[in-house]
Amino acid sequence: MMDKLLSIDTFLLDLDGTFYLGDQLYPWSLSFVDACEKLGKRFIFVTNNSSKNGDYYVEKIRKMGVTITEDQVFTSGQATVFYLKKYD
After folding, report:
1. pLDDT exceeds 90 at position 1
2. pTM of the model
3. Which of 22, 21, 23, 20 shows the shortest CA–CA distance to 32?
């Protein structure tokens, strides 16, 4: 199992209910981020909640003590824009 995890370059993580609940990180969230950074792994947060934009989630996650960049959050709204630009 560990070999399979180590072979992954980028992890996609859901947000509410997986990485945090409401405004609280789960106990394992920071250790996961630390492990990714130590192992040189990327992680990107994805959400199907289209009511908020990516900047909202970046700010929310940063307020919880996690250092992330704007390109580490991908929303369903962003996916829609990407799709429409590609196939319009």
Report:
1. no
2. 0.86
3. 20
Residue 80 tokens, joined: 């829609």
Amino acid letter for position 15: L
| Domain CATH for 28 | 3.40.50.1000
Name residue 67's amino acid.
T
- Give me the number of domains the chain comprises: 1
* Domain residue limits at 69: 2-87
Q: Is 47 exposed, middle or buried (0-12, 13-18, 19+ CB in 10 A)?
A: buried
Return the pLDDT at 8: 95
Contacts 24+ apart (CB under 8 A), 67-71: 71/44
Instruction: Say how many C-beta atoms besides its own lie within 10 A of residue 72's C-beta.
Output: 18
| 41 token code pair | 């792994």
